[in-house]
Structures are given as structure tokens and as C-alpha cells.
Design a protein that fits this description.
By secondary structure, this protein is mainly β. The chain has helices spanning about 60-70, 130-135, and strands at about 5-10, 15-20, 25-40, 45-60, 75-90, 90-105.
């Protein structure tokens, strides 16, 4: 199977939209703006040539992490599978470029970021007796919440390694 893998550097153009399907699978999407910059010899400065927009799709754990980590205007690097969609709306033909993301991260050439590892809960046994023993008779079993986004303060001290 031939797939077109791409790496796109750009800025988050829309707030990530998180959705959870009835079957429990989660997805998130956002628009990515990637501007081409060229050296303008006459002005002797860099200038934007044109901007391409992509719809980035993230699935499962990546979707939750995208919503908790990304905001509009932030520089990111997205790697994934390029998919060109064609559809007709109101009698007009529309083409859109989608990226099914494999990996998304902040572009560290343009700023700093703080990484927090997300631990995935272990699946509990299906047997109620073993489940009660595993979590305790009075404990509630709840799905993990999407962590609140806490942007690092500018000039904040980096955590020790």
C-alpha cells in the first residue's frame, strides 16, 4: 500500500475540536496554516509568498493530547499521511488537503515547550470480584479527564533534568 507521508511546519489556525464517538474512539481536528517564505532581494527582507491550509486529524490518545497542548497561533510540526479529498457542495467542486497525523509537536526552533508524560490507565479485569479486589470495594472507576492546558510563563525556569 503506497501512502504519501508528509511533514508540515506551520501554525495552528483554529482551536482544536475534540469529539468522542459512541463506540468510545476519540478524534480531534484543527486547521494548520503553512506559509512559504521567500527572500525579497529588492527589499532585502523575508516575505510571505503564499499560505497553504491543511485539516489535521488526530486519533485516540494523540487527539486528547492535541486538545490539552495546542492553541491558536502556536508553531507546530505535523507528520502524517496526506489525503486529498474531493467533494461537491452547492454545485461546486471542492478539494481539501487532510493530514492523518502520526505525530504532532511544538516547533522548538521558534520557542520552548514543557513536556508532561500522560500515563494510560491499565484495563481492569472484567470479573466483578477481581475488579472489586483491584480497585477496592468503595472506589469509583472513572475515565481519565483531559488535562487542563497550563502554558509555561515566559522566562520561567526550566525543570531540572
Amino acid at each position: 500500500m503506497n501512502e504519501t507521508l508528509v511533514t508540515v511546519v506551520g501554525n495552528v489556525a483554529t482551536e482544536p475540536d475534540y469529539r468522542e464517538a459512541a463506540n468510545g474512539s476519540s478524534s480531534a481536528r484543527f486547521r494548520l496554516a503553512a506559509s512559504v517564505r521567500r527572500w525579497d532581494r529588492s527589499k532585502e527582507e523575508w516575505a510571505d509568498a503564499y499560505t497553504s491550509f491543511y485539516t489535521v486529524w488526530a486519533w485516540r490518545a494523540l487527539a486528547a493530547n492535541v486538545v490539552a497542548s495546542l492553541g491558536v497561533g502556536e508553531p507546530v510540526v505535523v507528520q502524517g499521511k496526506l489525503r486529498i479529498r474531493e467533494e461537491e457542495r452547492e454545485g461546486k467542486r471542492w478539494l481539501s488537503a487532510d493530514i492523518d497525523a502520526v505525530s504532532i509537536g511544538h516547533d522548538l526552533s521558534r520557542g520552548t515547550s514543557v513536556f508532561r508524560r500522560v500515563t494510560q490507565p491499565r484495563p481492569l479485569p472484567a470479573d466483578p470480584v477481581r475488579m472489586a479486589a483491584a480497585v477496592g470495594a468503595s472506589a469509583e472507576v472513572t475515565a481519565p479527564a483531559i488535562p487542563d492546558r497550563e502554558p509555561a510563563a515566559v522566562g520561567a525556569e526550566a525543570p531540572p533534568f
